Amino acid sequence: MSHPIIYIIGETINGEPIYSSDKTKNNVHRVLRGIWNHRPDHDPPTWKDFFDYMYSHQMFMVGEDESVETIMEQVICLILGKRLCWTSMDEINTMKIEPNMEDIVEEFFHHLEPVTYADQLIDEIESEEEEIEEEEEVTKRKEKVAEVQQILDEIMETKDQKLDQGKYLALCGLLRDVHQG
Hints:
The protein is mainly alpha-helical. Helix content is 59%, strand content 7%. The protein is built from 7 helices and 3 strands; from the N terminus they run E-E-H-H-H-H-H-E-H-H. 15% of the residues are buried.
């Protein structure tokens, strides 16, 4: 099974990577050719024409593979050097498409560092391991809180309801562990 070449093309405001693939590049080229085939060079299409063509041909996501969930608008903004959170699509839509845009797209992808399929799998495994560790940590904290509750219940069940030194130290240790965990 052939896997697409995946690139990190930017990052979100939260620092999450934005992925794209070689299939994305091919889709951009295909749409550019499609809209330029119906236009003379002296009357360049706009990015609105690009997106209209793309949506009319149902190319909503940038890749045909499941590993890329980036939308085409994000990719085009990054190719044009626009910041995602500060750029309105209205601004992009009115821009004329350069006649050499296919070369610009090619150059953009050429300068990206590909993420290998093995890297993707490693990232996914590490992410899953981190989630498991976090779940285990939460479980341990809940267990310690349950122990605290048990000690307090035992104290309340005694006749004099007093906290002796042993139980006090046990409570302190458990609460410290919950606080540091």
